[in-house]
Design a protein that fits this description.
Blueprint lengths: L1 E2 L7 E2 H7 L6 H9 L3 E3 L2 E2 L6 E2 L4 E4 L2 E5 L1
Parallel strand pairs: 1-7
Antiparallel strand pairs: 2-5, 3-4, 3-6, 6-7
């Protein structure tokens, strides 16, 4: 899956999970991040509002998202 930033410089990790429909709410996104279920560029990420930029890759529940 690809996510296009369009006119923005970055997107926060928790918002990405919600916008892509991988979680139903921001609260669920926070729980998943806190539990270590999300990887950014191959490394487990615990920062809920980590800024994702073009070229970053997110892995979550078998889904891979590339930021464009």
């Amino acid at each position: 899956m690809e996510f296009n930033l369009r006119d923005h410089d970055f997107i926060a990790l928790d918002k990405l999970l919600k916008i892509t429909g991988l979680v139903e709410s921001g609260g669920e996104a926070h729980q998943c991040i806190d539990a270590g279920e999300v990887k950014v560029n191959g490394v487990t990420e615990f920062r809920r509002r980590n800024k994702l930029h073009s070229g970053d890759r997110v892995e979550f529940r078998g889904e891979k998202i590339e930021i464009r």
